[in-house]
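To whoever is on call:

I kicked off a structure prediction for a single chain this morning and the downstream step that reads the tokens threw a length-mismatch warning. I double-checked the sequence; it's 139 residues and nothing unusual in it as far as I can see. Pasting both halves so you can look.
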Amino acid sequence: MTELPRFYEQFAAHIELETQKARMEAPIFVNNPDVLTVGCDDSLTQKGVWNPPGGGLFLLMENWLFDFFKVRRGSGSGVLAVHLNCWYLRIVHGLSDIKGQLHTITIFQREVIKLNERFQTDFNIIIEGQGSAAPYMNR
């Protein structure tokens, strides 16, 4: 068995901690209609008003996406940023390959389209490729 580098173990612990923090913050940010941009805490990616691990994918994977849109019904316009090579998807959800992460992003895109239509909102998705988990991803 190959031993993971110390950095990986430290960053995995960091992601777990930040995910727990974001789970506790989620009701505050999701229920605040002024939060119209969601980015990721990864230093290589776009920032928003709220930056949970995984960015917009956090909303999907933690079952907050519907509520996020519902709160912004009829008036929401903003940006939901996501990215490949995502530590959150790798560590918390076990998606260690690009194909799995792309599939999750595709599901996210479909859901955002449906929710934009349902709640008369206009949220755009930004998909970035430069997440910091790149060296640890399976191709």
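Update from on-call: the warning came from a stale cache, not from the record. Cleared it. Sanity check on the structure: Residues 6-30 form the longest helix (25 residues).
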